Amino acid sequence: MSEDKIKIEIWSDIMCPFCFIGKRRFEKALDTFANKEEVEVVWKSFELYPDLETDTALGIKQFLIDQKGIAEDQAEQMIDAADSLANDVGLDYDWEKIVIANTKKAHELLHLAEKESLQNEMKEVLFRAYFEEGKNVDDLNTLIALGVSVGLNEDKIKLALENDRFVAAVNFDVNEARQLGVSGVPFFVLNRKYAVSGAQSEDYFLRALQTAHFDWKNPEEAAKLREEQQKGSSCAPGSGCC
Questions:
Q1: Phi, psi at residue 33, to the nearest 5°?
Q2: Taking the domains of the chain in order of start, what are their residue ranges?
Q3: What CATH code is assigned to 6-216?
Q4: How far apart are the first and last CA of the chain?
Q5: Which of 8, 71, 128, 133 is most buried, most CB within 10 Å of its CB?
Q6: pTM for the whole thing?
């Protein structure tokens, strides 16, 4: 991380519909943030189903029914709700084409992309591949093609994925998320001081960016404000203070 930038770490999974939605909302907030040139975004790995076996014949609706133990109409409601939110931010999910796939190799590819300063581009392409193009993100040739499309070297991709070069990096992110108490994604950590859970609104993200940036630029003043807030009077349920 560059010392002249504020670091935003985002834990997410390729197969999480709200992670792609959260990416769009965060990007819109970042576009309106006055100091966006001082922001560095790092994508961190999180596996919702680490033991998932890729099944190209399994549809998303049946996957939800099997994984969550819910009825068909409930699965349809979940898909409709996510689809509505996706449409609101200009995304066009093709639920019929989604390939249920293990995402570990896709996360490995993201770590390679980070080394080449192409991580955000790679994340975007992987999300589109999964939710809009119906591609198998656990397939080596598919991942090679996706990596090449953002500017990665084909031989480097093949070598890294075939030799599990970034498996340790993926596992490190997953363990780090566990230590931070992350139980769901997307999960945003701003400069290791502020956390935002879920695909919040554009306004919410903008306020979080402004707060984290102020703290980063004015650490002493921010610490003083936090101390003053902590000293404030308060009431607790059943305390009899009023």
A1: -75, 125
A2: 6-216
A3: 3.40.30.10
A4: 49
A5: 8
A6: 0.90
